[in-house]
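Hi V.,

Quick status before I head out on leave. The structure for the redesign project is tokenized and pasted below; the design run finished overnight.
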């Protein structure tokens, strides 16, 4: 075991528990059509993990910056309409049940909107101890704010926490929060840190804690 005695496992949602790429691609295409945006999906997709408005700011295109609120609303509404275009990865429910049965708390740290996140989690027969979504009080990833808040709220020490992510912003947020990190290779991004534990499938998680 690499991370013995963990009391809390926090997960990113997209690319870790949830395969949502098709949903995002269809939603982005519809959003670009409605708002006359010329932004390839892969340019948007390479920035996921950050709050939606942060992605728009990074893309730095004039008609995006002038219309962020409406663009985000269109994307979220379309994504919710296409909610059945998401699926949980094989083994997710089994691993979550094993964590629960071993008295290990679980949480979500995601940049998805609150409404969309809970609609997705309603498809899963499992109750997390905490679900952190973007809000005005805490900075989104790569800032560590949401991880630190979850730790405080659940009254555990940083040394007792493992965070599972798949993007560079997840890695950075975990490091800044001073919690252990494992990288989901089945997800959407790479991790170049040779010292980071990398999982090829989620069922390997139980072998490292």
């Amino acid at each position: 075991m690499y991370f013995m005695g963990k009391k809390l496992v926090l997960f990113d949602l997209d690319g870790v528990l949830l395969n949502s790429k098709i949903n995002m691609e269809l939603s982005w295409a519809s959003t670009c059509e409605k708002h006359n945006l010329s932004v390839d999906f892969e340019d948007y997709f390479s920035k996921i993990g950050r709050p939606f408005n942060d992605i728009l700011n990074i893309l730095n295109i004039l008609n995006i910056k002038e219309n962020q609120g409406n663009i985000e609303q269109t994307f979220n509404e379309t994504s919710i309409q296409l909610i059945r275009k998401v699926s949980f990865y094989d083994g997710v429910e089994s691993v979550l049940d094993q964590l629960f049965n071993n008295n290990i708390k679980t949480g979500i740290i995601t940049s998805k909107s609150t409404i969309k996140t809970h609609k997705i989690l309603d498809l899963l027969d499992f109750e997390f101890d905490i679900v952190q979504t973007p809000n005005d009080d805490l900075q989104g990833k790569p800032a560590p704010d949401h991880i630190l808040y979850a730790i405080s709220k659940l009254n555990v020490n940083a040394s007792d926490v493992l965070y599972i992510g798949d993007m560079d912003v997840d890695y950075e947020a975990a490091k800044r929060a001073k919690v252990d990190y494992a990288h989901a290779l089945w997800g959407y991004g790479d991790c170049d840190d040779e010292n980071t534990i990398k999982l090829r499938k989620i069922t390997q998680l139980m072998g490292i804690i």
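Above is the designed sequence. The chain has a mean pLDDT of 94.

G. will cover questions while I'm gone.

Best,
W.
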